[in-house]
Each structure stands twice: as C-alpha cells, then as structure tokens.
Design brief:
12 strands; binds 3-isopropylmalic acid; two-stranded antiparallel sheet; Isopropylmalate Dehydrogenase; NAD binding (chains A, B); alpha/beta; homodimer; magnesium ion binding (chains A, B); magnesium (chains A, B); 12 helices; IsoCit/isopropylmalate_DH_CS (chains A, B)
Chain lengths: 347, 347
Amino acid sequence: MLVALFAGDGIGPEIMAEARRVLDALGLDGLTYEEGLVGGAAYKAKGHPLPPETLDIARRADAILFGAVGDYDCDALERHLRPEQAILGLRKELTLFSNLRPAKVFPQLADASALKQEVASAIDLLIVRELNGDVYFGEKGIRTTADGLREGYDIMSYNEAEVRRIAHSAFRAAQVRRKKLCSVDKANVLETSQLWRDVVTEVAADYPDVELSHMYVDNAAMQLVRNPGQFDVIVTGNLFGDILSDQASMCVGSIGMLASASLDANGKGLYEPIHGSAPDIAGQGKANPLATILSAAMMLRYSLGRPEAADRIEAAVAKALESGARSPDLGGAMTTREMGDAVLAVL
Amino acid sequence: MLVALFAGDGIGPEIMAEARRVLDALGLDGLTYEEGLVGGAAYKAKGHPLPPETLDIARRADAILFGAVGDYDCDALERHLRPEQAILGLRKELTLFSNLRPAKVFPQLADASALKQEVASAIDLLIVRELNGDVYFGEKGIRTTADGLREGYDIMSYNEAEVRRIAHSAFRAAQVRRKKLCSVDKANVLETSQLWRDVVTEVAADYPDVELSHMYVDNAAMQLVRNPGQFDVIVTGNLFGDILSDQASMCVGSIGMLASASLDANGKGLYEPIHGSAPDIAGQGKANPLATILSAAMMLRYSLGRPEAADRIEAAVAKALESGARSPDLGGAMTTREMGDAVLAVL
Ligand SMILES: CC(C)[C@H](C(=O)O)[C@@H](O)C(=O)O
Ligand SMILES: CC(C)[C@H](C(=O)O)[C@@H](O)C(=O)O
C-alpha cells in the first residue's frame, strides 16, 4: 500500500520526520512511501501550492499523512496560490468529505486545559465536520454594488445528498461510541441550516439506536465551555466545524497532541495534526510531534487496516508521556527529536 | 424621553418586571414608558412576531429595553413568522448595526466560570458585533439543483460602507479602553472576510493610537478558551460575532449577568440580556433578572444620557451580590422577585 507524505510548511518537515521514524520502527511490510510538496513550499518550488505531481501521488496513494501548511511569505498572493489551497484542494479533489476530530483529555496531561480539571477531564467527544461544501466552496468574489461600493460575497449552500452523506458518517460513528449525536446548525437564521436539520432528521430514521439532538451553533460554542462532557458525537457543516473543532481541541488543552482524519466514502483518508504550521517556531526543534505521530496511528487504523500497529503507537505515546516526555507546549523542554526518541524508546 | 419595554417570551415578562421596578425606584423624571408585544407572544396575539404597532413604538422611542424571544410552540412556523424575526427585524428596521457585548468576571462570582479561576478572572473584553449584514440578511432559500436535489443556500456579503461603519464603532470603543483591537475573520477562505480585513485596515489609519491585529475565527475560538485575557476589543461580523460573543459570555461563567447594547449611528439603542427566553423555566420565578437590570443601566448610560443613574444601578447590583443574593443559575435559591428586591434594597 502507498502512503503519501506531505510535510508542508513551517514545523511540517520536523514533525513529519518524527512520524516517519515511528512508522519505520514498526517494521510493517507492504507499505511504501512517496513524498510530495504542498503549501508555501510547493509554491516556492513549483509555482503552485498543490502541484500536479503532488496531486498525482495523492490520487495513487491509499492514505496521506499531512504535516501543516501556511507561510507568512505567501499572505499577499492571490487566493488560489495561497498555501491553504493545498489542503482545501486535496479535500475537494479526493472527495474527503468526512473530517473526524476526536477530543479527549490525556490523563497524563489532565491539568493542561484552561478549563477546570473536573470539566476538562469529562471531555470525550468526536466532531464530525463536513469538508466538501458550505461557504468554503460556493461561488465567491468581490463585486461592485449599485452605489459603486466594493462588496465581498460568498455563497453558502448544502444539498440534500451532501448532508445525507455526512449524516450517515456521523450516525455510524455514534453507533460505535455512546450513541448520542448532536447536530449543530443555525436553522433559526439560515436556510442552508434548515435543510441540514431536515435531512439529518430524515437520516435518523435509519439509526433508531442513536439519540439525535439539534443545537444552534451559538449555544454549542457556549456548551463546549460550560459542560463539554455532555457531548458524544457532534456533526456539523464545514464552517461551524472549523470553529467548534478548534474550540473543542483547546478545551482539551494540549493542541499539540490532537490528530484528525479526513475520509472519502471508501476509507481512503488524509491524516493531519489539528495544529497549524507555526512559522514562528519552525526549524527550532520546539514543535511537539505527537499529534502527527498519533495521526499516523489513525491512518494505520482507518485506511491501512493495521489496527494493532495503531494500538502500538498510541500505547507508546501514552507511555512516553507517563515517563515524563514533555515538549515546550506541554510545559517541558524536550526537542522535537527527543520527543520522537521517547516514543521510539518504548516501541 | 420615551423608553419602549418589550418583554417577549418565556422568562421575558418576569425579568422585565424587575428591571421596571428598578427603573421606577430611581425616580428619574422625564422618562415615559410604553410596552409592546414581540416574539411568540406577539404572534399569538397579533399574528406577527413584530407587529406594526410594536415597530411604531420602537421608532418613536429613544431606547428599547428588550427581554427575550423564543417559544417552542412557534418552531414549526414559516421563518418570517418565528419569534426570532422580532429581534432581527428591530435590528434591521432601526439600523441597530453595532452590538456591544462586554464580558468581564464579577469579582463576587469569580468561581462561576468553567475556566480556571486565574484564566477567567483575567477576562475584560468587549465584543463589537456587526448586526445588519452578513449571511443573516442576504438572499436565501431552498432551490432545486440540476440533479433534482433540494439545496439550501444563503448569500454572505459585506460592502465597504458596512464594514467601515462598524470598524469606526470598534476603534472608538477601543480608544476609551486599553486601545487594542482584534478584528476576527476567515480571510483565508472567504472573500467577504478579505474585504472586511482590507477595510478595517484602511480605517485603522484614522486611529493611530489603537493597535490593530487580525485573527482567523477558528483561532479566536481557541484563544478565547486558552487565554481570553489577551483581548481588549474584538470586532467581527454578524455570524462570527454570534458564536464568539456567546462563547466569551460563557467563559465569564454567569450568563445570567451579562447585558448588551445594539446601537444605531445616533446613539439610539436596544438593550437586552444576552441569555435567551428559557421557556423551560418560564413563569417559575427561577430566572435571574440581573442581566436585564444591567441592560437598563447600559441604556441609561448610552442612550438616555443618565450615566449617574447607570452607575447607581451597577453599584447596587454589585452590593446585592456581595450581600449574597444568588438565583439558581448562580448556585443560590432566590427567586426572580427576591433578586429584584435585593437590588432595590440597596437603591
Ligand atoms: C487552513 C484552513 C483553510 C483550514 C480550514 O478552514 O478548513 C484549517 O483551519 C482547518 O481547519 O483545517
Ligand atoms: C435569536 C437569534 C436570531 C439571535 C442571533 O443569531 O443574532 C441570537 O442568537 C442573538 O445573538 O441575539
């Protein structure tokens, strides 16, 4: 099976290197790797954040391990040339519509959250975010109003097939968890949300064992602070999912620890840490590679059919934390490489 | 001067009654009051959530004190008849474009937040939310795609005049605070946000004493959990403001305590507690009236030119809290009326 490795910008190469060392240490046979350029790095080398040769590797691959994209040098470029287009393009081109972001406190890091310990330690939720639609991919631009004013616009939309597809993903995820699904929208204001709510409710008929509720996004943002332990699975659109999943991650406290999967309908997926490219600390060995290493574990489990290897990585990360491995974001002083070493030592 | 009192649904009438008692106790002369129906209550009596007679009072008034709208009975109505249309309609018809939502921990309630006390007690921020544009008021509907699928859509947009107007509000607010303004958008994905960012940056030239920064909304949702003390004034659009201002309120902990103002260009305003109509506890005397009482104080300060009266109310609320006044949401057992009594006792 082919694994694409796209390190990207900023701290991407450093954290990817550690994930690769961990994958190699597992001694799995039948896996081959191909590297590709994405983001600002790809723009600088090839003139595009997602060059054709990278997209070609991605199409051929069974799974993609992704570092991070984002580079201040590219902020002034036209939108279609900015680093973010690499990740948006991969999601769209490969129909990776289902973004799974588990958030759970690591017992070893129970005090890392800004939330009170009893509130944070109750967090065990999964956000299922739709990635192929919404205001992200609708028609957009700058136009001139009748009065001659500049006006920016973006069309938000979802059709019933798009909502149904992600709703099924979410209900299935809830079935193997605590069987509670909360769909988040803004149906009191948005027609897109009203359709979303109607279709999710229709799909619920296929999953009588899952308890479905609906919540407005403003309330969800409050409840994720007040009592995040109330949630099992949350399903929501691309824009609200972007906001709420980052919020939920921060409630856990250790954003350098959280992995995510973006899946198509056949189990092919892209795996990435939820943190960004952190250009301010790039190249200094300060980045925590554990989120990327845990993303590799998710990849082995969901796309590569190697759940035992995934278990081994996750257990090794837990042991490394127990033995005191801490990068600066976790209040320690270990380098990126030393964090990787700590995991390898257990493996 | 004329004050409109719109109590609305759910707990609206109970909390409004206490605010009215407080206003009366101040013995201010020159103020007259007119009550009007809004929300589900107005729909049931008049067939519309914002009947013409209510809108007429609102237009004539110098300020509006608003309770809350929202009623489960109305959930199945067509969108234009739902209770929320009362508040959306007032904002739009009266051009109340600038929503000010201060969030600050009450020292007497320092432990109320789900955030660690040292994180929560650092909160002293003001969210300035645009209320007249964005995806709230663009064209919207349900259409059929070429493949015969139902599709919901909503157009998000801002023109430069709308952004400039709210940016000036926000810069002026920052000038009388700690002189830091953070503009929140999603310019890496949305053209509406790109225009927003460009125009806010242009307006900044008029306020060299204010330090302007920009932040993506997903990062802002994280930072409001991680370190909300870093913010002074946040300015953002209608949709992001809806989400972030509720999140920030919950970070403070005592959502039953927070007031808000929605202002037009001339200082006329609508004042309301940030909590909702809470139909589940309506009529039981369990609601905390302090957010409405504090909204009345904001009204006296910003629209009615009576800052001393505002100070008196705010001091009385602080004293009442000090003397132990606690409604159920604050961990106590006092009724709505008893909370009002506690404030009146100090006045
Ligand atoms: C980089 C950006 C376009 C992206 C998004 O908004 O989806 C990121 O925030 C994410 O959540 O993966
Ligand atoms: C009731 C609803 C339409 C409203 C909004 O979304 O603006 C509310 O959430 C608010 O923030 O005042």
